[in-house]
Design brief:
This protein is of the alpha+beta class and 227 residues long. It contains six helices and ten strands. Helices cover 37% and strands 19% of the residues. 29% of the residues are buried.
Length: 227
């Protein structure tokens, strides 16, 4: 009987319970795969951005921004509000690029539309838009003020760049970067379009073309067509 029972048992297939997956390990591998995919996507996006920027640059990233207090008493950010479309553009006071004894406030130009443009001598796109700004300034005299804000440079460099490309409009020196920091400047050039009541109506990051100028000036109530 025992021998017959053993032979019978040898003919059967033993049932083994399936191994349960290690869920924490699977979850970790899933998160890791997502992380790798995110890094690859970010690298691809960065490569595409830098490649396109090299071939036809319209803006330059800002690599340094201190936000330190301005060295001249009475200058710096005068409004705690950050820039926001449809809200008053934050007021500030900075030293005139052409006259170190003069302080210029954004609010000095209330009653006129203002094209507030951040620039620097190392910014190629900034150079290319100066002649268009100057041309519009001459045509729209009395209606629009173009105000350049030079980023972290000396007065000599700030003014020499304007002179080189024929820019006669006013400019100020953000020598510490505090106003640039308040306005969240991360690319150059960046241009803010402010209406006669001091309300920020639009922002353009990158070089402003003549067509851009027409479109954005319309948003501040000014009609302009480049010759």
């Amino acid at each position: 009987m025992d021998r017959a029972r053993d032979n019978c048992n040898r003919g059967k297939v033993a049932h083994v319970a399936p191994e349960q997956p290690n869920e924490p390990r699977h979850q970790f591998l899933g998160f890791a795969a997502l992380a790798v995919a995110a890094v690859v996507a970010a690298a691809a996006a960065f490569y595409a951005f830098t490649s396109s920027d090299k071939s036809s640059p319209t803006s330059v990233p800002v690599s340094q921004q201190s936000g330190a207090p301005t060295p001249v008493p009475g200058t710096g950010v005068l409004s705690s509000e950050r820039p926001e479309i449809g809200r008053p553009a934050p007021d500030f006071a900075l030293v005139d690029a052409r006259d170190s004894a003069a302080i210029v406030k954004l609010s000095d130009f209330r009653g006129k539309a203002v094209v507030l443009n951040w620039y620097a001598s190392w910014c190629g796109p900034c150079r290319r838009e100066i002649p268009d700004f100057e041309q519009a300034q001459q045509i729209l005299a009395g209606e629009v003020v173009f105000l350049g804000v030079n980023y972290l440079e000396s007065s000599s460099r700030a003014v020499a760049m304007l002179d080189e490309f024929g820019g006669t409009y006013p400019a100020v020196l953000d020598s510490s970067g505090v106003v640039s920091d308040h306005y969240r400047i991360t690319f150059m050039p960046t241009t803010f379009f402010i209406d006669r009541e001091g309300i920020l109506r639009s922002v353009k990051t990158g070089q402003v073309s003549p067509d851009d100028l027409t479109r954005h000036l319309e948003r501040v109530g000014v009609t302009y067509t480049a010759p």
